[in-house]
Amino acid sequence: MKRALKLLLIVTVFVTVNQRTENIGNTQDLTITIEKGAKKESNSTRKPVFSGKRPSVDVAILLDTSNSMDGLIDQAKSQLWNIVQEFSKAKRKGKTPLFRVSVFEYGNSGLPAREGYIRQVVQLTDDLDKVSETLFSLSTNGGDEYCGAVIHEAVKRLDWSNEPNAYKAIFIAGNEPFTQGSIDYRSACKKAIGAGIVVNTIHCGDYRQGVKGKWKEGADLAEGEYLNIDQDKTVVHIKCPQDKVIIELNTELNKTYLWYGSKSTREAYATNQAVQDSNASSFGGLSSRAATKSGALYRNVGRDLVDTYDENKESILELKDADLPEEMHNLSADERLKKIKAMSKRRAEIKSKMAMVAKERQAYIDAEKAKLAKESGATTLGDAVSAAVQKQLKESGFDLKK
């Protein structure tokens, strides 16, 4: 089957969440094998440059929250921002994509049986703090894992981008047979690729057992990658000499956000940003999160005045005082814009410094990872997903900056 014009990445991630806060810092490494799925399109059939104002990248994360995958959810939490950074490298015709993420949970006996133990936790959103909040709020509870059903629901329910050359992705991984449930995984995967959705499957366990359980066939049917991991390996977090500076700059960056909406809404946005900084820090990933916040993918249009002003200046002038930060009440239109422009300039200065230090940090990490790879040969979940993402973004016509 030829790759459809719209490329969607669906990776099946069966994840079990550990809700015990005393264990939140325990992370696990994952040994991964990547095998090619169906034959990819040649350069002659590569998609043309996008036709919209901005290229689109949509990613849905499907997490198994039954009782068998506690280590994997910690890996997903700890490397969320590393994975996001891979997407931040992508550009099409010089433009950074509009990046949205959705989260589903399934396989949890606390979910309604009549709905296949599936729940859409968050719709496709560019609010990455909301995505992080969702991951850290999930809990586990036995159940039946229906891969075909959750893939089917993700394809059907989500408002996937209509951009002709969008890259769309769902992450789904686990260790139970891919064949369970009333919806045939083959029909679900064929429906996915028919809509331009690539399915990348992640089997947690023995490689051959995953093949036997039809994880590889699921990837092949939807022209994706079959990923094999050992979720019992321990993650090694690399401490960098640049971390202290990046974290200090992150504190300054947070001060530049001018949240708007009702008072409770503004407070919720500010609080959640701080909470997700803390969540990332608990896994040793605050520097990675901060580095992501310095780039174009971390955006808060519709929530923050500075980001919204860059997209729609007129909408700012239409806001009522009650929906503005208190320090902006009773300002004239000119005074309001002057305040926003000043904060925008300040944010740009901080982001520029963060980006420069983050680049130095990444070079340090790459060198350290090369050493660790020679010693252990282990690959983490984030590294495996990143490899698949890099390959498929290129195949779908994105340029990846070095």
Give structural notes.
The chain has 402 residues and is an alpha/beta fold. The protein has two domains: 7-235 and 380-400, Rossmann fold (3-Layer(aba) Sandwich); 243-362, no CATH class. The protein contains 13 helices and ten strands. The strands form two sheets. Strands 1, 2, 3, 5, 6, 7, 8 and 9 form an eight-stranded mixed β-sheet that branches. A two-stranded antiparallel ribbon has the order 4-10. α3 runs parallel beside α4 (185-194) and α10 packs across α12. The longest helix is centred in the C-terminal third of the chain and has 44 residues, at 333-376. It is globular and about 65 Å long. Residues 1-51 have low confidence and may be disordered.
Q: Which descriptors apply to this entry?
A:
402 residues; alpha/beta; Rossmann fold; 2 domains; two-stranded antiparallel sheet
